[in-house]
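Example record used in the benchmark description.
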Amino acid sequence: MPDVCVQATGCRVETVESLGSTERLSPLQEAFREHHALQCGFCTPGMLMTCIDALKKYPLTTDNESREVLSGNLCRCTGYEHIVKAIRAARDQSRGDQQ
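Model output (structure tokens):
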């Protein structure tokens, strides 16, 4: 898969490590913690990065929209309900911060 790295040349690549720190979680990480959206942790980085991107691009006004965004990530532990609650909380907090 060397072609994949070439495609990222000149692009900014963000990873879950860039979201926050152990001393200060990002708002989405905090929402995942508060709403019990973390289970085994295997899918968590992908879920967080997918959600960060989606929250930047889309209003995610309904839970169904959030579920659609998550449809590319497989989680065998949470059943997604807690993750959707976390997305809603982070979305609502960011809207409150902008007002």
